[in-house]
Amino acid sequence: MAGEPQDDCLFCKIVAGSIPATIVRETETTIAFRDINPQAPTHVLVIPKEHHRDAAALAAAAPQVAADVLRETQAVADEDKLESYRIVFNTGSGAGQTVWHAHAHVLGGRGLEWPPG
Ligand code: AMP
Ligand code: ZN
């Protein structure tokens, strides 16, 4: 069923606490933790606790939770005192998605080129 934890999902395991992560924020519907392979001084992943395969699936199935994820990206940026930051939702393997549980990358603390690579 949409939103149910998946046994083979790394981020569902982080939500469940069975895999450790450096959690920086938690709400009723979301968690935010530092990326294990940071690409910027601030590189935090904000995820819904519910399992959805990507951002669009999350928005379709649970729009309020999608809004919660977006609100939390700002909270992460505020905690790290970022004036500017980038939110990235890699969607599909061609765009670099490797974990099939919706997640927002929050990147900041260095210059961010546009357009991105
Ligand atoms: P994506 O490539 O957009 O699917 O993003 C997945 C992200 O998860 C990558 O930036 C990885 O570095 C990160 N990642 C993978 N395993 C872990 C982990 N155990 N804890 C924190 N971040 C992770
Ligand atoms: Zn999951």
Automatic annotation (TrEMBL):
Signal sequence, renumbered to the chain: none
Domain HIT: 10-117
PROSITE patterns: HIT_2 (PS51084)
Record organism: Streptomyces composti
Protein name per UniProt: Histidine triad nucleotide-binding protein
PANTHER family: HISTIDINE TRIAD HIT PROTEIN
Cross-referenced SUPFAM superfamilies: HIT-like
Motif Histidine triad motif mapped to chain: 101-105
Top-level taxon in the UniProt lineage: Bacteria
